[in-house]
Amino acid sequence: MPFGPPPERDPTTPRRLELLRAALRALPPGAKVLDAGCGGGLFLSGMLDWGYEVTGTDLSSKALELAAEIGETVSRGPDEACFLVRRRFVWMGRWLRHGRCFPDWQQRLVRRGRARYEDRSVNERLVVDGKIGKLKGCLIHEDRKGLSAWLEKHNRYSTMEALESLREGRDGQVGPRLFTRDPIARKRFIQRRVWPWVPFKPTAFFLYQYILRLGFLDGAAGYRYARLKSQYIYWTELKKRELLRTDGARPRGDRV
Question: What is the pLDDT of residues 192-213, one digit of tens each?
Answer without folding.
Answer: 888 889 999 999 999 999 999 9
